Amino acid sequence: MPSPATDPPRLSVPRVVCQPLFRALVPRSHPFAALALFALAPPLLLPAAEPAPERAPTVLATVDGQPITDRELDRELARVVGQRPLTPVAIGQLREATLAQVVDRTLVAQHLEQTGFGATDQEIERELQRIRKRLEQQQLTLDQYLQRSGLTRDELRRTLAWQIAWPRFLEKHLTDPNLERYFQQHRRDFDGTQVAVAQILLRVESPDDPQSRAATISTADKLRSRITAGELTFADAARQHSVAPTAADGGRIGSIGRRGPMPEPFSQAAFALDTGQISPPVVTAFGVHLIQCLEVQPGTKNWQDARPELEAAVIQHLFRWAADRQREKVKK
């Protein structure tokens, strides 16, 4: 990476706000699997839409003077969720997580503008002209499209500015040396390493109830303390307390990869362990887990073999880094 004064410091594992929650709530094949990156490349929707209902937007957050409204949030959710059914609790959690992503995208956009990567007025106008020509083919004016889609001119210009600035930023930082450096820092996540694990799974009696979930986490914490204190072995605790089918075998699952077959929060926690270590409680859609690492089987892939998943991870890291850097400025 370039100098810390102007560019990202030492890379670390990114924590995308939405990703673990979405993977816990929605199957891997669901479009939410890509929502961790929705803030990185929001599409410009040009097909004609039904007229948006006339109502005043509600401001949900303000980022350094720039408002984020419920209409913007609703568009992001509708684009990804579509018509798929979700429980009211899940929708509430996803709205909260998506708002956090929209806030971060706004912070990143401000960072890009202030560090020389922002789009110029001329670049935005060129994109607007292209859009007008595409709309003419549908016999629509720009004003008609904005009315039907519920966008304001400012929102459209911000979207275009992002679509120009973010690729420009990535072009500078998403380089082979940076990919290789990230790989070396997080080799186990990308080189095909397999981790043999055992688990204790505790059922959450009321999954949609935060208090029920918190109570199960507390139970798992106490059980972990008993295991680490030597009162009983992990295998015995699994046989006595786990509701997973592996309980009779002391919780042994076998070997897993970094990106499957277990849910992302589970895999992330498992790959952070050394042999013999036990994770803190991990929450997934299945319940609350305690994970023990039984063996680490190193992989043999190099960074070039892992390029697709490596690029996705570095993009997420850069997004999080830029958002955090701008957040610090805004707080001052």
Please report which band the strand proportion falls in: under 5%, 5-15%, 15-25%, 25-35%, 35-45% or over 45%: 5-15%
Largest sheet: 4 strands, antiparallel
Distance between the termini: 26 Å
CATH class of the largest domain: Mainly Alpha
**Residues in helix, %:** 40-55%
Strand order of the largest sheet: 4-3-6-5
- SS elements, strand count: 6
* Overall average residue pLDDT: 83
Unreliable stretches (pLDDT < 50, length at least 5) are: 1-52
Number of domains: 2
> Number of helix segments?
12
Q: Which sequence of SSEs, written as H and E, runs from N to C? A: HEEHHHHHHHEHHEHEEH
CATH-derived architecture of the largest domain? Orthogonal Bundle
Please compute the radius of gyration using only Cα atoms.
23 Å
Provide the CATH topology of the largest domain.
Triger factor/SurA peptide-binding fold
Shape: globular
Instruction: Name the structural class.
Output: alpha+beta
How would you characterize the overall build of this protein?
- It contains 12 helices and 6 strands.
- It is an alpha+beta fold and 332 residues long.
- The protein has 2 domains: 19-184 and 309-331, Triger factor/SurA peptide-binding fold, CATH 1.10.4030; 194-297, Chitinase A, domain 3.
- A hairpin with a 2-residue loop joins strand 5 (282-284) and strand 6.
- Helix 3 (88-114) crosses helix 12 (307-331), helix 4 (121-137) packs across helix 6 (153-173) and helix 7 crosses helix 12.
